[in-house]
Design a protein that fits this description.
Radius of gyration: 18 Å
Order of helices and strands: EHEHEHHEEEHEEHEHEEEEEEH
CATH architecture: 4-Layer Sandwich
CATH topology: Nitrilase/N-carbamoyl-D-aminoacid amidohydrolase
Number of strands: 15
Strand content: 25-35%
Largest sheet: 8 strands, mixed
Distance between the termini: 40 Å
CATH class: Alpha Beta
Length: 331
């Protein structure tokens, strides 16, 4: 049964350089049933570098407030939340290297420290993405997915496939150089946590079946998908892609989209708004949506994650990722 979320209040090489950190070898027993959420937020764009920190603080405060409300309503059962793509920065109208340098952040860094504190307070895991500056490769900028938790940054995963904007590196184009400094496990990292094995697809990577398959072959159980999906003619099949990736790989897929991107012109002071397509949702391993936000309003959708459901019935064994490891996981 799908939980249709209502707007606003609704709910229903070093390892670190490679893109993730390993949790303590003494890990609490895995929790197989818990609540998960995707949050659809308005995101303020950084149109004037002079107010970079102010805008990021506004976006961060919105995200924290939304997660705090969810944590309270779920009464301790909430363990994982996905936020939209670039929820701290928004897409940049000026995509020159100079503009990227002014707004980029590092992982970890001071911009996400309050979010890590949030995870510690509520013992949860949070995913999103950002324009990232990578200190080991000066002058390179990534659109990187990340997962943080009570122990800090667990995954940083630069977009590896699909397209990106000018001057933002996609790993497939510079893979050897990236692996040389980030390590052999840098591509499509998966981290094991007390709530299961987590991985990230960034934005349009959801349309690349091989990207999800690579994560599934590493045992991913929750595929976390921060995105920015705008209305198009003809529309992109985001719903179909999300549900297909979940079914193909016997995992949960959690997609969080923008509600709207907005900003203030530094030249005129006028406000502008660019609508998103909304439709944030959680799909289960059977390929059906468990919770959906209908429309592009601000809000959240929640569902119960049952890790016992990721195995699937025997007649669906052909869809298990182990069958195709030799195809999708060769170096």
């Amino acid at each position: 049964m799908i939980e249709h979320a209502r707007p606003a209040e609704c709910s229903s090489s070093a390892a670190n350089n490679a893109g993730y950190m390993r949790l303590s070898a003494i890990m609490p027993a895995m929790r197989e049933r818990y609540r998960a959420a995707v949050v659809q937020l308005p995101v303020e764009a950084i149109l004037d570098p002079a107010v970079r920190d102010e805008v990021m603080a506004l976006n961060r405060a919105r995200a924290i407030a939304a997660v705090e409300r969810l944590a309270a309503s779920e009464r301790g059962a909430l363990r994982v939340v996905v936020l939209p793509a670039c929820f701290l920065q928004a897409p940049l109208p000026d995509r020159t290297p100079e503009a990227l340098e002014r707004v980029a952040i590092t992982l970890p860094g001071p911009e996400i420290a309050p979010l890590i504190d949030l995870c510690r307070r509520h013992n949860l895991y949070l995913a999103g993405s950002c324009v990232e500056r990578f200190p080991l490769l000066p002058g390179w900028y990534f659109h990187s997915g990340f997962v943080i938790g009570p122990d800090g940054v667990l995954i940083r995963a630069p977009k590896a496939q699909a397209r990106s904007v000018p001057h933002v590196v996609v790993l497939k184009d510079r893979l050897d150089a990236y692996r040389a400094v980030a390590g052999p496990d840098a591509l499509f990292p998966v981290v094991e946590t007390p709530i299961g094995r987590l991985g990230v697809l960034v934005e349009s990577e959801i349309y690349v079946p091989e990207a999800a398959r690579a994560l599934a072959a590493k045992g991913v159980q929750l595929l976390l998908h921060p995105t920015l999906h705008r209305p198009r003619t003809p529309p992109r099949p985001l719903e179909a892609a999300r549900r297909a990736r979940a079914f193909e790989n016997r995992c949960f897929v959690l997609t969080a989209n923008h509600a709207v991107t907005e900003g203030r012109s530094p030249a005129t002071g006028e406000r502008w708004r660019v609508p998103a397509a909304g439709g944030s949702a959680i799909a289960g391993p059977d390929g059906h949506d468990l919770a959906v936000i209908v429309g592009a309003e601000e809000g959240a959708a929640t569902a119960t994650v049952d890790l016992g459901a990721t195995g699937g019935p025997a007649e669906e064994a052909a869809f298990t990722p182990a069958l195709y490891r030799d195809v999708y996981c060769r170096d």
